[in-house]
TrEMBL record:
Pfam families the record matches: DUF2231
Species assigned in the record: Caldinitratiruptor microaerophilus
Name by which UniProt lists this protein: DUF2231 domain-containing protein
The keyword Transmembrane is annotated on this UniProt entry: yes
Domain DUF2231: 5-139
Keyword check for NAD: no
Signal peptide feature range: none
TM stretches of this protein: 6-25, 37-59, 79-97, 109-130
Keywords: Membrane, Transmembrane, Transmembrane helix
Length: 157
């Protein structure tokens, strides 16, 4: 399940980022088409985030065994998990607000909505960073160099 999680996480990261960009453009420029694209992208990104959180939870046990051998590994996993659940919660609130309060997104309410979306992106970035630290502790380039020195590709094949 670890590989499934690693493959899935990139989709909600990209989709949720693009959804917020569409929302900003749509609301600040009064473009209904961008607002609609933002909503559909937000729905897809949120569904992907829930799926990524599920696969991450399933993969947690095997990751815990691996990360106990690394200094700070279990704490990193715990921080990543908390950040992931916070991110899913923030985007759930954004999605709910967007679908139920669509007609009221004006003035200070719109500003608050867009600020929450910015907080969601910040949380998404922290979650992704922590996950990347677990998956690639010395960076992808260092892994590739070490693998090449052992005559394998960076994925161990």
């Amino acid at each position: 399940m670890v590989k499934s999680h690693l493959m899935l996480v990139h989709f909600p990261i990209a989709l949720l980022f693009v959804a917020v960009v569409f929302e900003v453009i749509g609301h600040l420029r009064g473009r209904e088409d961008f607002q609609k694209a933002g909503l559909y992208t937000l729905l897809a990104g949120f569904a992907g985030a829930v799926l990524a959180a599920f696969t991450g939870k399933v993969a947690e046990e095997s990751l815990e065994r691996f990360l106990t051998r690394r200094p700070g590994g279990p704490a990193l996993l715990e921080a990543h998990e908390i950040a992931a659940y916070a991110t899913v919660g923030i985007f759930a609130a954004i999605l709910l607000w967007r679908t139920l309060g669509r007609r009221t997104l004006r003035g200070s309410v719109l500003v608050a909505y867009l600020l929450l979306a910015a907080v969601g992106l910040g949380s998404l970035g922290v979650t992704g960073f922590l996950g990347g630290e677990m998956a690639h502790p010395q960076g992808r380039g260092a892994q590739a160099q070490a693998a090449a020195a052992m005559g394998r590709d960076a994925d161990g094949d």
